[in-house]
Specification:
This protein has about 325 residues and is of the alpha+beta class. It folds into two domains: about 140 residues, Immunoglobulin-like, CATH 2.60.40; about 110 residues, Immunoglobulin-like (Sandwich), CATH 2.60.40. Helix content is about 20%, strand content about 40%. Strands 3, 5, 6, 8, 10, 11 and 12 form a seven-stranded mixed sheet that branches. A five-stranded antiparallel sheet has the order 1-2-4-9-7, with no helix packed on it.
Length: about 325
């Protein structure tokens, strides 16, 4: 009996520790997600991770990319310009060398890098000028390239933000004019049609049928069986782009505790200039089957006991009535 307060204290301590640990974990996650620097495994940090600009035909502009040697030793880094396309639906870039590119949306041939090699002392940071020169006859569309840095000679192709020991900056250029902006919802799904309880996992897939990139943003609105708004969750809050001739998927998790029942989810996205809308909807159930089965079993048991009790009571009433109506015994004849 003396150990009980200690056990209770331990539970209370855990209840205090868990939220605090979760708070620090969330803070670390937010900090990681909001960083504006790419860092490679070979000791180089590059910023910004992405450059997105709109340019006119015949225009030239220079952007600065900053590279930093985060190691304790001096090192030389070699820049390389490449094109990229979407590798998969998660937004992973697939890099293509300038010598092999034949992509309609190529940008590397328009890029000039101010330095062929950069030697940095330990912890030193330097800017690198990258000039983008758009041809006069360029048509309104999107063009996609990258400037990668590494301590190895240029390579052919690869995937990810760091390939063959390289890290760099993605560059997305939109040529001003009447570009073709055309997006559709390829699918809007949940991983199941019914759940015992949240979370509910949503996947929104957007296809780009146009010739310029766009970043669809919006929300998923969740309503109950009566059409009342229950909750909403942001979609693509990191403003990820959908490249032409590709599909980009956006995953969301809904974790709010709600009552069992039927729910409807509406996907409401917007993109482009002028703004265009993308919509889709689906429905799902929150049905705690285990609790429902236990409740039904209890209900059946209660009903069975009630029926049994009524039958016994009826038998008792009938038996009592029969005893009252029985004739008195006939006296013996002498």
């Amino acid at each position: 009996m003396k150990k009980l307060p200690s056990a209770i204290l331990n539970k209370k301590t855990l209840l205090l520790i868990i939220p605090v640990a979760a708070l620090f974990a969330c803070a670390a996650f937010v900090k990681a997600q909001t960083t504006d620097t790419n860092s490679g495994g070979f000791g180089l940090a590059v910023s910004p991770p992405t450059i997105s600009v709109t340019m006119k035909p015949g225009e030239a502009r220079t952007e600065k990319i900053f590279i930093e040697n985060v190691t304790k030793e001096a090192s030389t880094y070699i820049p390389e310009k490449m094109d990229f396309v979407a590798k998969d639906e998660s937004g992973t870039p697939n890099f293509i060398s300038e010598s092999e590119t034949s992509n309609t949306y190529s940008l590397s041939k328009w890029i000039t890098i101010s330095k062929t090699a950069i030697t940095l002392a330990a912890k030193e940071r330097q800017p690198v000028d990258v000039t983008i020169s758009v041809p006069v006859n360029a048509e309104p569309s999107g063009h996609f390239g990258a400037v990668l840095f590494g301590n190895k000679p240029p390579t052919a192709t690869g995937t990810g933000a760091a390939i063959a020991g390289k890290i760099g900056t993605l560059i997305l250029v939109r040529i001003a004019g009447a570009a073709k902006e055309n997006g559709v919802v390829a699918s809007f799904t949940t991983d199941k049609s019914s759940y015992q309880k949240p979370p509910v996992n949503f996947t929104s897939r957007v296809r780009n049928l146009g010739n310029v990139h766009f970043a669809p943003t919006g929300e998923i609105v969740i309503k109950d069986i009566f059409g009342r708004n229950v909750d909403s969750i942001k979609v693509n809050d990191v403003v990820g782009n959908v490249l032409p001739d590709s599909i980009r998927k956006f995953e969301n998790k809904w974790e709010k505790s709600v009552l069992p029942g039927y729910y409807k989810a509406e996907l409401l996205l917007s993109y482009g200039s002028p703004q265009k809308s993308l919509t889709a909807s689906l429905s799902f159930w929150i049905l705690p089957w285990v609790q429902i089965l236990i409740g039904l079993a209890i209900l059946v048991a209660v009903l069975a006991l009630l029926v049994l009790g009524i039958k016994r009571y009826n038998r008792y009433i009938v038996s009592k009535a029969e005893n009252k109506q029985a004739p008195p015994p006939t006296p013996p004849v002498v």
